[in-house]
Design goal:
The protein has 348 residues and is α/β, with parallel strands linked by helices. It has eleven helices and 14 strands. The longest helix has 18 residues, at 160-177. The two termini are 21 Å apart.
Length: 348
């Protein structure tokens, strides 16, 4: 029996995560849930949006299913984490809950599958690709400062070790799932040292996988090609910032963030989450689309070897989407979150 830390999050999070958990239970998967508080509710109750007990729960279970959390824009907002590490007290601060979780748990790669589903209106057909985003460095190390009142600067950091680790995970994933090509996105024509190193390190790992073709694109050309012929891409290997941007662009190819799952994977833990926002304006109204968290749950089940349950949920969701009788408004129907969930469970 696998134990999963459930992080409902803010806004619509409790509704969409609740939907995914109900469907996972109905599938017969051998999992049990341990719910924790993170975000605005946690801040009210515990005085911090990210209690140390949450990190301890995820580290203990090795798995988490997470809903969206809310982070203010701009200003000096930081998430502070204080706990014992290696026998001494550790204190760190981060710009958001998501980044804090990834850093504290060592979740070094973000995995974002992007594919068409029947009944989801898009401009494109036959899109089926996976993005592998390096999760631990680049501009997201948060090393920035004000030079003076009118000038700010940030440090971009790329290391061979972090790049190779993510690249190897990506190539192993492609090999395991029968995919045939990896494309490395970069800006090495201008950022010759940082992106140059990212490109070289990725290409060096590719040599160990002769059965998988590997090519490269300058990031702006990659974005252009993605909106012209997305069906020609299979796997994408990207540094942190470019990966963040391109992941959302790619989600737009298949219907938006509401249908896009995500996983953050490390050596000891894995966190599966919706990549959309918390949408507080529609929270509690039974109109939120839970598809992204449901598909994140499918990724989680495959990660732990519960492939039968994962395939059954995916098939049930696909059938409900194709019928269009019990889907949410953003998918062209008039069903609420609960009815959409019940329809999927009915197909199981």
């Amino acid at each position: 029996m696998n134990k999963v830390t459930v992080v409902p999050g803010d806004g619509i999070g409790p509704e969409v995560v609740g939907s995914a958990c109900a469907i996972i239970k109905a599938s017969g998967a051998k999992v049990e849930f341990e719910e924790v508080l993170v975000g605005m509710r946690a801040e009210k109750e515990f005085g911090t949006p990210l209690p140390v007990s949450v990190l301890e729960s995820i580290e203990r279970n090795g798995l988490a299913l997470k809903g969206p959390t809310q982070t203010p824009f701009g200003g000096n907002y930081r998430i502070y984490v204080e706990r014992m590490r290696g026998g001494s007290e550790w204190r760190a601060d981060y710009p958001s809950i998501a980044i804090a979780l990834r850093k504290e748990l060592g979740l070094y790669v973000n995995v974002r599958p992007v594919k068409n589903y029947p009944g989801v209106a898009t401009r494109y057909d036959n899109v089926d690709l996976v993005i592998f985003r390096e999760n631990s460095e680049d501009l997201y190390v948060g090393n920035e400062r004000m030079v003076d009142d009118d000038t700010a600067e940030a440090i971009k950091r790329i290391t061979r070790g972090a790049t190779e680790r993510t690249a190897r995970y990506g190539f192993e994933y492609l090999k395991r799932t029968g995919r045939k090509k990896m494309t490395i996105g970069h800006k090495a024509n201008v950022l010759k040292m940082t992106d140059g190193l990212f490109l070289r390190a990725g290409q060096d790992v590719a040599k160990d996988y002769p059965g998988i073709a590997c090519d490269a694109r300058v990031i702006d050309a990659l974005c252009m090609e993605l909106v012209i012929k997305p069906e020609t891409f299979d796997g994408l290997l990207l540094a942190n910032l470019f990966g963040d941007i391109v992941s959302d662009l790619a989600a737009g190819l298949v219907g938006g963030l509401g249908v896009a799952p995500g996983a953050n994977v490390g050596e000891k833990c894995a966190m599966f989450e919706a990549v959309h926002g918390s949408a507080p304006d529609i929270a509690g109204k039974d109109i939120a689309n839970p598809m992204a968290v449901i598909l994140s749950g499918v990724l989680m089940l495959r990660h732990i070897g519960e492939n039968d349950a994962a395939n059954r949920i995916d098939a049930a969701l696909t059938a409900v989407l194709a019928e269009k009788k019990h889907v949410t408004r953003d998918l062209g129907g008039d069903a609420g979150t609960k009815r959409f969930t019940e329809a999927i469970i009915g197909k199981l």
